[in-house]
Amino acid sequence: MYVEFEQQLSSGGFEPDEINQLISCSQPLELPTRHTLIHQGDIPQQIYFVLEGVCHACYLTEQGKSFSKEFYWAQDWVIGFESLIKHQASPYLLETLTPVRLIELPIHILHSWRATRHSLYLKLLETQLMHKENKERFMLLYSPEERYQLFNDHFSALKKQLTNGQIAAYLGITPISLSRIKARINAKASD
């Protein structure tokens, strides 16, 4: 697992000494589907790097509703910066949606890197910020149908691992809207 982790970090712009430092304090994990990594309301003790599989973060309301925050898949960092920065409980649940292979790092390492403005902390922060900006652009600049088409173009392998409801949540639409979009695309394709 560490060979994959090292290759992905290297392609992500991490320097060899940064990669070695991350590996030295990490632990590989293989977990089944529907395994809870962080309960909503718990103080996170770890951060994760996804090698394979899909994780899901969602907000749970007192009324029993669930709102998708994000899906994480291969080469994604899973870091709750709000909890880290404010020293508070996780506002969301994090679970696996498929069997996953992860690299786990203790959050206290991240706290110490943050306190010293360590280059690794800044690199992780930059990586997360770029991901958030890309997702924001995806949600704001494209129509639901365009988002679905982009999702199909860029994440066809991921599409096979998610339900229609999960895909709709990622796209910020309802499952009914997704069904309508699929029907329109299929109708155009058959013309």
TrEMBL record:
It comes from the Bacteria. Residues 13-53 form the Cyclic nucleotide-binding domain. InterPro entries: cNMP-bd_dom, cNMP-bd_dom_sf, RmlC-like_jellyroll. Gene3D superfamilies: Jelly Rolls (2.60.120.10). Pfam families: cNMP_binding. This is Crp/Fnr family transcriptional regulator.
